[in-house]
User: What shape does this take?
Amino acid sequence: MHAPATAPRDTIDASSLLQLIWLASPALPVGGFSYSEGFEAAVEWAGVKDEATAADWLVDQLHLVLARGDLSVVASAVEAWRRADSARVQALNTWVLATRESAEFLLQTEQMGRSFLEWLKLHHDDAAAAFDGLPASYPVAFAFAAARSGASVRDGCLAFAFGWAENMTAAAVKAVPLGQSAGQRMLARLAREMPAAVEAAMRLDDEARQAFTPMLAVLSARHETQYSRLFRS
Assistant: This one.
């Protein structure tokens, strides 16, 4: 694995900003829109029933799940890609794949990682070689592109978090269901919470990073056999 180092900048320039907006876009063809990450099961079994309960659920998921796990991986992986530290990248990728707590969660990170890698090949000729034939998890593949953007680690993590939030609020609008205005209010609340979540994620070392979310894992597993569902399992 290798990736030429790109020095981060204190102030993000237009090119880096546009690349991060592109990476966070729900139009990116990686399939994030097709997963609810247990949310659809939470509507069925965990009392998510309106805008308030949906927003509370996603804020908790941001801080208790994303910040403690995948966001921390993105922060570490961006730095590893810039150092061309292939052993570190492999370790982070292995951690992600080993800590998916349901078949559905594993499917999501593998499928989105694979699709993201295919997209990367359009822009970086060495993307496939950088992974050296390994299955790419989505956070580590995202970090590869964020590292190439020249943006700071913090900005890359914010882009990852915002892309996640857009997919999840869209899932909430469909699954509860809610109106588009409710979805925008929820997204605004998540955006206010993101800086703190990213700062917390960036402070975590390997010992503090975790993926222990038993309730979410049970809901994801139940979603795999949920009778009526909109989202992929």
Observations:
- The CA atoms of residues 116 and 122 lie 10 Å apart.
- The chain has a mean pLDDT of 92.
- The chain has eleven helices and no strands.
- The chain has one domain: 14-24+34-223.
